[in-house]
C-alpha cells in the first residue's frame, strides 16, 4: 500500500507526531521533499510532503496563514517541521489555519533525519510497484486460463481478484452491464457517469464522493467501457492491461459468434430447400443450441438496412438464434419464444412468429406460417404469432391454402405473364398501390417515365380484369398482393 500521513505518524522509528489537521492524515504520499523557500508551493505539488527545518515559515500570524493556504491550494499532502530547529517559537496561527483546512502539520524529533522519511516513502513505493508487477503476471495467467472458455464473467472475477479491485464491464451508451449475467454498476457510479457530458473514451479518473475510480472505453469496442475502483494497485498501466485482456476475450467471443451465425445461415438455407434428412436436420439444430421441438421460425422485413450490431446485441443477451437474409426478408430460428419481444425491439420492425418447429423438416411450412403472421402485423401490434394471427386483420386469408388460392385467382395470369415475358407488372402494381396510386412517386421509385407507367397500369388492368380507378378493384388487387406475400410466392420454394 502507498504510504499515508498516518503511516508516518504510526511508524515509531520516525518519531513524528501530529500538531494539527487530523482530517488529512489519510492522504497518500507520493514524495517527500526538503524546501526552505518562502513559497514552497511553487516547487511542490499534489501528494508531496514538505519537510522543513522552519527557516521559510514566517513569524507573523497573517503570513503564517497565507503560507499554509498556498500549500493547501497546491494540493501538498502535508507539512513536516523539524523539532527544535529554526521554526518560529510561535506557530499558533499556522496550526489554527491547518485545523480549518484539514491540512496535516507534523513535528519530527530532532534526531530523525529527513532522509529516513524519504526512504520510508520510497520503500513503500517499491513495494507497491513489486505488487503491481506481480498483479500483471497474475492478469496474464488469468487471460491464459480465460482462453480455455472460462467465460467473460469468470474472467472478470479473476481479474478483479488479481488486482484486488472491483471491475465492472458496461455499455457506454446505456451504462447497463455489457452482457447478461455481469454485475451492474453501483448506483453511486451510475450517477457520476450519467453526468459526464462527453462520451467515455480515454482513461479518466472519477470520484463518487467517497472513492476514486478509473474508467475507460475498450480501444477495439468503444461501446464497451470498464470501471475499476477500490484497489490499492490500480493505476493507468494496470487498467490498460486489464482492458487489453478483456478486449482479447471479447474479440474471441465475437469471432465465435460470427462463426456460429455463418453456420446458422448455411443451415437455414439447407432447411428451406430440404437438403437434409430429418435426423441430420435435427442434429445440426441441436449442435447450434436450437432444439427443434422448442424453436420457432421468425420472419422480419426491415425497412432499409438492418440496425447496426443487432446480432452482437442479441449475443450479449445470450439469445441463441440462427439468421439468414433471403431477399428483403430476414429469416431467423430462435431457440426460445420468450426472446421474440427483445428481437422485435432490437430490429425495430414488425416480426411474424411461426408455431413451434417440432422438426427441422418443417422449416418451409414454418416460413409460410411466419409470413402469414407478419402479414397481420400492425403498428400497434408489431409482433404477431401464427396462432393468433387473425385476431385483428380478419380481412386477410386465414391460412396458407386460402392465401395461395386467392392470389392465384386474382393475380395468377399476371404472375404467369411476368414469368413468360420477363416483365415487372407485379412489382409495378405493388409500388403503385403502396404510393397511393401516385403517378409521380411511383415512376420515380420504379425509375421509369410516367408514360411507361401508364402503359403498364393499363396492361395490368387488361390482364387482371380489375380497374385501378375503382375502389373495388384497388381493394381486391391489394388483398391479392398481401395474400401473395403470405403464400410466399416467388420468395421460397412452394409447399406441397
TrEMBL record:
Coiled coil: none annotated. It comes from the Bacteria. InterPro entries: CdaR-like_regulators (IPR051448), PucR_C-HTH_dom (IPR025736), PucR_C-HTH_sf (IPR042070), PucR_dom (IPR012914). It holds the Pfam family HTH_30. Residues 7-123 form the Purine catabolism PurC-like domain. Residues 425-482 form the PucR C-terminal helix-turn-helix domain. This is PucR family transcriptional regulator ligand-binding domain-containing protein.
Amino acid at each position: 500500500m502507498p504510504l499515508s500521513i498516518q503511516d508516518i505518524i504510526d511508524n515509531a522509528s520516525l518519531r513524528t507526531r501530529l500538531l494539527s489537521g487530523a482530517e488529512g492524515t489519510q492522504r497518500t504520499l507520493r514524495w517527500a521533499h526538503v524546501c526552505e523557500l518562502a513559497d514552497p508551493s511553487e516547487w511542490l505539488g499534489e501528494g508531496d510532503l514538505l519537510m522543513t527545518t522552519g527557516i521559510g515559515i514566517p513569524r507573523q500570524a497573517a503570513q503564517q496563514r497565507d503560507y499554509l493556504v498556498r500549500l493547501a491550494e497546491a494540493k501538498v499532502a502535508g507539512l513536516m517541521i523539524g523539532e527544535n530547529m529554526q521554526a518560529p517559537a510561535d506557530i499558533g496561527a499556522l496550526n489554527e489555519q491547518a485545523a480549518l483546512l484539514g491540512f496535516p502539520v507534523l513535528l519530527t524529533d530532532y534526531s530523525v533525519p529527513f532522509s529516513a522519511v524519504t526512504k520510508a516513502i520510497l520503500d513503500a513505493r517499491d513495494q507497491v510497484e513489486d505488487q503491481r508487477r506481480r498483479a500483471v503476471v497474475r492478469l496474464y495467467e488469468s487471460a491464459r486460463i480465460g482462453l480455455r472458455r472460462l467465460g467473460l464473467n469468470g474472467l472478470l472475477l479473476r481479474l478483479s481478484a488479481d488486482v484486488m479491485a472491483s471491475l465492472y464491464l458496461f455499455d457506454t451508451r446505456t451504462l447497463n452491464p455489457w452482457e447478461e449475467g455481469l454485475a451492474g454498476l453501483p448506483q453511486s457510479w451510475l450517477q457520476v457517469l450519467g453526468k459526464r457530458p462527453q462520451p467515455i473514451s480515454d482513461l479518466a479518473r472519477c470520484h463518487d464522493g467517497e472513492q476514486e475510480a478509473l474508467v475507460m472505453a475498450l480501444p477495439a469496442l468503444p461501446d464497451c467501457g470498464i470501471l475499476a475502483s477500490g484497489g490499492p494497485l490500480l493505476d493507468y498501466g494496470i487498467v490498460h492491461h486489464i482492458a487489453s485482456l478483456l478486449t482479447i476475450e471479447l474479440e474471441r467471443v465475437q469471432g465465435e459468434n460470427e462463426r456460429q451465425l455463418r453456420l446458422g445461415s448455411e443451415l437455414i438455407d439447407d432447411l428451406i430447400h430440404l437438403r437434409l434428412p430429418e435426423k441430420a436436420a435435427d442434429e445440426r439444430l441441436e449442435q447450434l443450441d436450437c432444439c427443434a421441438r422448442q424453436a420457432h421460425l421468425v420472419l422480419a422485413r426491415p425497412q432499409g438496412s438492418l440496425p447496426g450490431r443487432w446480432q452482437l446485441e442479441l449475443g450479449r443477451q445470450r439469445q441463441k438464434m440462427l439468421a439468414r437474409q433471403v431477399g428483403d426478408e430476414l429469416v431467423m430460428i430462435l431457440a426460445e419464444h420468450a426472446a421474440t419481444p427483445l428481437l422485435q425491439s432490437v430490429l425495430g420492425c414488425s416480426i411474424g412468429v411461426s408455431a413451434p418447429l417440432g422438426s427441422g423438416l418443417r422449416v418451409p411450412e414454418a416460413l409460410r406460417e411466419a409470413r402469414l403472421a407478419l402479414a397481420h402485423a400492425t403498428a400497434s401490434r408489431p409482433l404477431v404469432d401464427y396462432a393468433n394471427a387473425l385476431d385483428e386483420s380478419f380481412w386477410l386469408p386465414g391460412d396458407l391454402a386460402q392465401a395461395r388460392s386467392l392470389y392465384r385467382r386474382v393475380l395468377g395470369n399476371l404472375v404467369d405473364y411476368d414469368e413468360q415475358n420477363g416483365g415487372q407488372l407485379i412489382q409495378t402494381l405493388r409500388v403503385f398501390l403502396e404510393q397511393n396510386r401516385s403517378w409521380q412517386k411511383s415512376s420515380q421509385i420504379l425509375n421509369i417515365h410516367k408514360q411507361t407507367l401508364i402503359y403498364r397500369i393499363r396492361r395490368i388492368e387488361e390482364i387482371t380484369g380489375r380497374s385501378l380507378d375503382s375502389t373495388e378493384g384497388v381493394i381486391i388487387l391489394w388483398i391479392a398482393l398481401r395474400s401473395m406475400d403470405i403464400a410466399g410466392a416467388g420468395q421460397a420454394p412452394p409447399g406441397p
